[in-house]
Amino acid sequence: MRRYGYNPNAVIETLHTAQDAFGCLSSAALKYISESLNVPPSKIFGVATFYNYFNLTPPGEHVISICTGTACYVKGAGEILDWLKEEYGLEPGQSTPDRKLSLKSARCVGACGLAPVVILDGDVVGKVSMDAMKKRVREWIGNDQ
Ligand code: FES
User: Fold this and answer.
1) Is any atom of ligand 1 closer than 6 Å to the C-beta of 137?
2) CA-to-CA distance for 30 and 37, rounded, in angstroms?
């Protein structure tokens, strides 16, 4: 915040920096940012919840973001979501109880030609197959089922 002169227009930059420092945006961090930038808490919370990038709870060890835009959904993202729910009980916004996996959904990430697109620990993977997803997730959790 000091870097941006406590400018109320630096909300996104401040949230980015706070999340990088702490791993997620706790309610205490959001309150502190609100008071420091003199921006209403509702606006801070609105920005933090609008952007898929921001986490209000600590993410799991591995994070899967699945694009659920129309092109990706039609090309198989829905089946991947169904599998993650069936196999691990995961729905978007949740983590497994052991915090190995977190699942997020995103609206079109701008790579529709590569549908279905997933982001695995920050790496964008296009044209992902169900087999490739299963392999990666099972490698992460140490399960060869
Ligand atoms: S719908 Fe998934 S990248 Fe556009």
Assistant:
1) no
2) 11
Domains of the chain: 8-50 (no CATH), 62-141 (3.40.30.10)
Closest CA to 133 of 98, 113, 103: 103
The encoded tokens of residue 41 equal: 């808490």
pTM for the model stands at 0.78
Angle between helices 78-88 and 130-141 (to 10 degrees): 30
Q: How far is the CA of 14 from the centre of ligand 1 (A)?
A: 28
What is the percent of the chain where pLDDT is above 90? 84
Phi, psi at 65, each rounded to 5°: -115, 125
DSSP tag of 125: E
Å from CA of 66 to ligand 1 middle:
9
